[in-house]
Amino acid sequence: MTQGVTPLSRPLIAGIVIVIAVILDQAIKLAVEAWLPMHEAVPVIPFLALFRTYNLGVAFSLLSGMEREFIIGMRIVIVGVVLWLWRRTPVSRTFAHAGFTLIIAGAVGNLIDGLVYGHVIDYILFHTETWSFAVFNLADSFITIGAGLVILDELIGSKSGD
User: What is its pathway (predicted)?
Assistant: First the structure.
């Protein structure tokens, strides 16, 4: 892309993407709550299952022993910091703006869970017969992909002083 304004550097477009991503995340979580049995693996393909569980902490159940209010406050601070970074990032940094947009969407999706349910609804499980990854959700995926895009932007982004 040229050095011009990238779509996700525009607040309205980024806001629309965030709203759509949060609606998608919350709609899936409502479906999971309605139809997916608790703590029962529902195979999708050999290494992927749906597995409903609740996360009282943050990503990968970190800080699960902390108070709910602390976790919610931390998520609000993270959204604020990422918004601040997004606003300070030059408009030509396409991957960074896309990453910040996804991070905010994921954080807001999980923040809504914390406020409404008191926990985050997780349901995606990658596994083999001898190993399994932490159970996560679409919002966590947004955050992870967003962080990867921000890192990618730092690695390959414009180093021309912008």
Answer: Protein modification; lipoprotein biosynthesis (signal peptide cleavage)
Domain presence at residue 1:
no
DSSP 64-132: TTS-HHHHHHHHHHHHHHHHHHHHHS-TT-HHHHHHHHHHHHHHHHHHHHHHHTSSEEEEEEEB-SS-B
HSE, side-chain direction, 13 A CA sphere, residue 12: 0
Domain that residue 52 falls in: 9-159
Tens digit of each residue's pLDDT, the chain (162 residues): 446 778 888 999 999 999 999 999 999 999 999 999 999 999 999 999 999 999 887 665 566 667 778 888 888 998 999 999 999 999 999 999 999 999 999 999 999 999 999 899 999 999 998 999 889 999 999 999 999 999 999 998 755 444
Which positions are annotated as active-site residues?
Answer: 122, 140
The structure's pTM equals 0.89
How many angstroms separate the CA atoms of 50 and 40, rounded? 8
Count of domains forming the chain: 1
Residue 42 lies in a domain: yes
Residue 2: inside a domain: no
Domain assignment present for residue 4? The answer is no
